[in-house]
Amino acid sequence: MKTVSCFAGPSESLLSLSTALFPLVLRLFGSGAFGLLAIGGGWKPIQKFFAFWVRRLSSLTPIALLLARVLPPLDRWWFRMSKGRQTLTGLLADVPVVMVTTVGAKSGKVRQTPLLPIRDPDRPTCLALIATNFGQERYPQWYFNLKKHPQAQCAMHGEQKAYLVREAEGEEYQRYWQLAEATFFGYRVYRQRIRSRHIPILILEPLDRE
Questions:
Q1: Element (H, E) at 113
Q2: Tens digits of per-residue pLDDT, 139-166?
Q3: pLDDT by residue (tens digit) across 111-142?
Q4: Domains of the chain and CATH, by start
């Protein structure tokens, strides 16, 4: 059987975009960041400062639409280069990112999607995925994939596990939505932006419960 890579590498256009944005990032964050370093704060405060603004800016409509196209292929490439330990989104925004492998609802092909997992402290082995699709009106394709084939392989920090998938309802839905807003500011903004559809939350429970 022939194996086809989901993403061979960042295109020249994406690399050009990164190169073009780099001076802007330095102008926006450089003075404050290096000021923190100068007074002995070290790199950690700079990373937190930068990640905070990355998360805030990513909730803006034009940037969210751009990220919806640019980030997934870059994350897949970065994930592969780091041997499954990190994604570009996780690095820049300082958030957990899980690589979710699904089977296409129509094509039957294997798909990989980087997503932000939401965890409940009372159920630490489970993951929740929020189908906001960067605040877009249409449902994300991975949602249809998991509804048609309710099993997934999830990889994070170099480890991979198999999960069963179901959709949250009622009090469970409300609980995970509150956790989602506490994890990432953008979810509140996305909810205000999405008016024509429900935002599903899928619960992933590990097949191996040991």
A1: strand 110-115
A2: 999 999 999 999 999 999 889 999 999 9
A3: 999 999 999 999 999 999 999 998 999 999 99
A4: 58-206 (2.30.110.10)
Round to the nearest angstrom and report the end-to-end CA distance of the chain.
33
Instruction: Tell me the per-residue pLDDT of 175-200, one tens digit each, with 9 for 90 and over.
Output: 999 999 999 888 998 999 998 999 99
Q: In what order do the strands lie in the sheet with 118-120?
A: 110-115, 98-103, 151-156, 159-167, 201-206, 123-130, 118-120
Neighbouring C-beta atoms of residue 88, cutoff 10 Å: 22
Half-sphere exposure of 145 (CA within 13 A, CB side): 20
Alpha-carbon gap, residue 81 to 102, rounded angstroms? 21
* Contact residues for 68 (Cβ-Cβ < 8 A; gap 6+): 133, 134, 136
Where are the alpha helices (H) located in 99-200, listed in sequence order?
141-148, 170-183, 186-193
CA–CA distance, 135 with 22 (Å, rounded to integer): 25
Give the DSSP letter string of 34-99: HHHHHTT--HHHHHHHHHHHHHHHTTSHHHHHHHHHHHHHHHHHHHHHTTSS--HHHHHH----EE
Q: With a threshold of 0.70, does the pTM exceed it?
A: yes
